[in-house]
Amino acid sequence: MPRKYNHYLLEKDNRCLYHMFAAEIFMHQFLLASAVRTMNPEEADWFYTPVYVTCDLTQQGFPLPFRAPRIMRSAIQYIAATWPYWNRTEGADHFFLAPHDFGACFHYQEERAIERGILPLLRRATLVQTFGQRNHVCMQEGSITIPPYANPQKMQAHLISPGTPRSIFAYFRGLFYDMGNDPEGGYYARGARASVWENFKDNPLFDMSSEHPSTYYEDMQRAIFCLCPLGWAPWSPRLVEAVVFGCIPVIIADDIVLPFADAIPWEQISVFVAEADVPRLDSILASVAPEDVLRKQRLLASPAMKQAVLFHQPARPGDAFDQVLNGLARKLPHREGAFLKPGQKVLDWNAGLDS
């Protein structure tokens, strides 16, 4: 691919290497050196197009929502005009990384993402994305849900003694309101974070603040429960951090589809709380039996569990890269109708241009 689709974007702004969307960059680096790569396209089960859709950033460090669909559309036009492989299937044997808030809808606000929908040219492709929510416009059948990027080396540097007592009952650091984008309140996180704050800000069992202290990672290792509520999207790096630090994730995001469910027993290691039940969060967590807490903690202590949510550099057996390859392998052989007849067209190249 021409460097404008990947390397030039990274050279322009290397913050892309460190934010929660960085899986698209590290997946590219992994595949370049991977044993699963072939230089003979006729041997390939899958085609991968390295496009860094979240690497054109605002001054504040957020992906520009109007840029991502344009660069992806341009990349698809390029591969369709340059090689015959896209046109054989119109993307059915191609996969793309889409680690945006709402995947290939390419917007951070749900309402706008739903209006926009998945980029029509990606309708036949497999999307590897952080966004996962059942029965949602921005998640198409066959997508592979991945964890957001969290820096493994950075977390490793903050490990404390595993024998440290977990003296914090419930822990959360992050926004409760997004005054810049949702000044009236209630729309951000569908009101769930605001409800957490309003109901439990004075509860001594809940260690919560919008400040992000330097001891954030150490504090998670001292907590029994780590709150993982939805934000603009259902997912966040807190889920990865909670697993790595052995803190029981409290998942508050209705209909969320979690990453690598075949490798990570989310139901056994987490507590799920419906958004409508947030006002009862204290009693829900207090009712988790001590033996259940210990069972979840023992499962979270498994190195394989932590490995599966991390994009290691270099890659390690069983890590998130391996889980993506497993997901792609399970989708083989390609479904009936993937390969088109000569001259057959399915996709409308003009669809979605108005948005």
TrEMBL record:
It comes from the Eukaryota. One of its GO terms (biological process) is plant-type secondary cell wall biogenesis. It is found in: Golgi apparatus membrane. It is a single-pass type II membrane protein. Residues 1-287 form the Exostosin GT47 domain. GO terms for cellular component: Golgi membrane. GO terms for molecular function: glycosyltransferase activity. Its main location: Golgi. Keywords: Glycosyltransferase, Golgi apparatus, Signal-anchor, Transferase, Transmembrane. Belongs to the glycosyltransferase 47 family. This is Exostosin GT47 domain-containing protein.
